[in-house]
Every structure is written in C-alpha cells, then in structure tokens.
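Duplicate of earlier report; Thymidylate kinase input re-posted below.
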Amino acid sequence: MKSNLFITFEGPEGAGKTTVIQKIAERLAQENIDVLATREPGGIEIAEKIRTIILNPAHTAMDERTEALLYAAARSQHYFEKVRPALDAGKMVICDRFIDSSLAYQGYARGIGVDEVLSINEFAIGKKLPDITILFDLEPEIGLARIHAHGEREVNRLDVESLAFHQKVRKGYLQLVDRYPERIHVVNADQNIERVVEDVWALLFDALQ
Ligand SMILES: Nc1ncnc2c1ncn2[C@@H]1O[C@H](COP(=O)(O)OP(=O)(O)OP(=O)(O)O)[C@@H](O)[C@H]1O
Ligand SMILES: Cc1cn([C@H]2C[C@H](O)[C@@H](COP(=O)(O)O)O2)c(=O)[nH]c1=O
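Output:
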C-alpha cells in the first residue's frame, strides 16, 4: 500500500467528515499505516488561534477578504509546521478540510472568485494540492439539522449563514469536482454512518494500491 499520501476530506457542515476520519484512521492503523489526522482551520497552536478569530459568532463585521486571508494564513502555518514534515517523514496525512473549503466557501459562495482565492492560497502554500480528496455530498439542510440536533459542538459564524449561502457552498464543491475530476471523489453522505465509512474505505483502498 502507498503510504505518504496527503488525503483531504471536504463537504458542508455536519456532513460526517470528523466522525468518518476517526474510523478510517483506526482502520489504516490496523493496516500498519502510520497516519496523522489533523484539521483546518487549526491543527497547531497558531492556526487554532486564527480559527477562534474566524469562527467567533460575534465577528459579524469580518470582511470576506479578511476571512479568505485568515484561512490562508492558518493553512500556511499548519501546512509548513505539521503537514509537510509528516509527509516528509513518510506518514499519511488525513486533513479535515483544506484548500477546497476556501475555494467553495470564499471563492464561490462568498463570491470572491475561485481563481482569486486559489492565487492567495498558492502564495500561502505553493501549488501543492492534496493527492486524494473525498467530498461528502449532501443537502445542506440535512447537515445543519444534524449539528443543531446533536449539539456536540458550538454553532460558529459560518454555520449561521443563510441556507442560500450553504446551497452555494454545495454548488461550489460540485464545480470543483468538474475542475479536478482525478483528485476529488464524491461520497453520498446522506446514508447511515457505517455505509459512508464503507464507501470511503472502498475509495481509499483502491487509491492506495
Ligand atoms: N451519516 C450520518 N448520519 C447521521 N448522523 C451523522 C452522520 N454522520 C455524522 N453524523 C452526526 O452529525 C454530526 C456532525 O458530524 P461530524 O462532526 O462528523 O460532521 P463534520 O462534517 O465534521 O461537520 P463540520 O464540518 O460542520 O464540523 C455529529 O453529531 C455526528 O454524530
Ligand atoms: C478550512 C476552511 C473552512 N471554512 C469553514 C467551513 C466551516 O464552516 C468552518 C470550519 O468549521 P468545522 O467545524 O471545522 O468544519 O470554516 C471556510 O470557509 N474556508 C476554509 O478554508
């Protein structure tokens, strides 16, 4: 099996990414693959601090360009401090969100432009894209309802955006599938969690051979 791959999980709020990453990381460890699971924005101290600024529900005045730049700044620090060294050490890295979140949320849904957001991210991390991206696709209403029903995490500034915004995020992601068909693989996230884990595992298992 290939090992030092950079794999990202993407999708709207409440799609199940965090839950599935934990289960997939356990399975990979059983296959003796040295795996690092991390997340964006965050994953290391400086980026976690930037995360609290971006996602604070009180920061309603945040300009969309400030938002895009803060995500890119958090990404740069996280990538060079944690992700790149782990890949260089031969580990597999699984990241809960990465550049495609910026392209879908800031580039497409906020309306800054996908190419503009891509270019600030190229400044932040260079032209390296993930090796494999799994997109959890589902109606935003379903994901948002899961978050409000379970109450396991705080509702953040992006969660409370309008339904129209979250629908644009989904559309933005689906456009990215057309742009990067070799890299981005879509999983139906509107299934029970065991089924989603099996679908993701099957996709990854194929890609890792
Ligand atoms: N397939 C599923 N069916 C029903 N509930 C699910 C499913 N997947 C996840 N959940 C539940 O939905 C909630 C959100 O899941 P999770 O945190 O894994 O999503 P996420 O994609 O990481 O969300 P976010 O990006 O908004 O943090 C959790 O309470 C989780 O138990
Ligand atoms: C990396 C990244 C994230 N976002 C958004 C997506 C979510 O609404 C939050 C992160 O919260 P989660 O519970 O960790 O999923 O931030 C974004 O808009 N742009 C990005 O680059």
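DSSP finds eight helices and five strands in the chain.

Merging into the original ticket.
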